[in-house]
Amino acid sequence: MTPVRGRNQGGFVGGGDGILFGLLILIAGSLAVLNIWSIIDTRAALDAAAREYMRSYTEASTPQEASSAGERAALEVLLRRGTPLSGVRITAPDTGRFGPCEPATVTLEAEAPASAPPVPRRPGCPPDPGVTPRDRRPTQGDDQWPEP
């Protein structure tokens, strides 16, 4: 008869520790995907808003009317998409060069909301500011984008 030996935990990594590590990877991966999706969604919203801004801008007859109509159109698109308007910044085209053949560029910037990790923050630590996507939309020469 052979004596019974105590069991060691040599193969235990496939059990409890592996499950905890897999859960950690799943949570971290989900947060990364959420943050990336938030940036992509904000960028798509800014692109649509810039397109509508330029459409309204080019249909107006005066520079002042063009700027206000463009801003109204951009904010309406962002509102319909559910983008928070508090951090949106619109840089209008130069109204001194307004005309049917003049190039115009609008710049839209917004804060992409960052997903918070499910861990408590230390007191006194500032929150993560997130990422600021921006979109520039010219009216002429789609293949000739100006440098940011």
Beta content: 5-15%
Distance between the terminal alpha carbons, to the nearest Å? 82 Å
- Which of globular, elongated, flat, extended, rod-shaped describes the shape? rod-shaped
The averaged pLDDT comes out at 77
The total count of strands amounts to: 3
Low-confidence stretches: 140-148
User: How are the strands of the biggest sheet laid out side by side?
Assistant: 1-2-3
Helix content: 40-55%
Output the radius of gyration: 26 Å
Overall SS class: mainly alpha
Individual helix count: 2
Sheet with most strands: 3 strands, antiparallel
**What pattern of helices and strands is seen along the backbone?**
HHEEE
Question: Can you walk me through this structure?
Answer:
The protein has 148 residues and is mainly α. The C terminus is likely disordered. The radius of gyration is 26 Å and the shape is rod-shaped. It has a 3-stranded antiparallel beta sheet with strand order 1-2-3, with helices on one face. 43% of the residues lie in helices and 9% in strands. The chain has 2 helices and 3 strands; from the N terminus they run H-H-E-E-E. Helix 1 packs antiparallel against helix 2.
Key terms:
148 residues, mainly alpha, three-stranded antiparallel beta sheet, 9% strand, disordered C terminus
Q: What is shown here, in short?
A:
By secondary structure, the protein is mainly alpha-helical. It contains two helices and three strands.
Please give the structural blueprint:
Blueprint: H1 16-59, H2 63-81, E1 89-91, E2 105-109, E3 134-138
Antiparallel strand pairs: 1-2, 2-3
Helix pairs in contact: 1-2
